[in-house]
Amino acid sequence: MEQVQEPVRAGSLWYYRDGGKRLSLKKIRQSADASQMTAFMREKITAADRLPEPQRSQAFRSLRAETLAELRNVIGAYRDLARQGQPSCADVQCSLYVATCYLRFEFAALQVIDEKAARQLSLF
Q: Is 56 within 8 Å of 49 (Cβ atoms)?
């Protein structure tokens, strides 16, 4: 009896090694989950959420701008890696995987920031 192997999921390091196609930014964003947010961002978001208005709203605007700037940097790196990607280059495959993870983290953080920022606390 021949064993059938399951296809490797896009979230796996082996996805790129096994010839998986580069994921679009839209696909990565759709797969981002708030539970994937890094502890670093979680602490900053929690601290901002505890502030009284209007400092809270300002803190969320700053966090959003900071996250978008970092996201732009990671997107640039991801695109550069995808351009130079060669099917047999383990370093590029590993780097693509790491960049994909960073993109998921940044998109997840952005989701949480936007959700919390949309909820304005009472000023009184």
A: yes
How many whole angstroms from its chain centre is CA 30?
10
pLDDT value at position 41?
86
- Backbone angles phi and psi of 61, in degrees to 5: -65, -40
Residue 42 is classified by DSSP as: H
Residue 54 preceded by cis peptide, ω within 30 = yes
Calculate the dihedral angle through the C-alpha atoms of 43, 49, 54, 60, rounding to the nearest 10 degrees.
60
- Report the pLDDT averaged over residues 54-65: 94
Rounded to 5 degrees, φ, ψ at 97 are -60, -50
Q: Where are the alpha helices (DSSP H) in 20-89?
A: 25-31, 39-49, 55-84
Q: Look up residue 121 and give its DSSP letter.
A: P
Q: CA 120, CA 49: separation in Å to the nearest integer?
A: 10
Whether residue 100 contacts residue 21, with contact meaning beta carbons closer than 8 Å, is answered with no
| Contacts (Cβ under 8 Å, ≥6 apart) of 86 | 92
Would you place residue 72 in the very low, low, confident or very high pLDDT band (cuts 50, 70, 90)?
very high
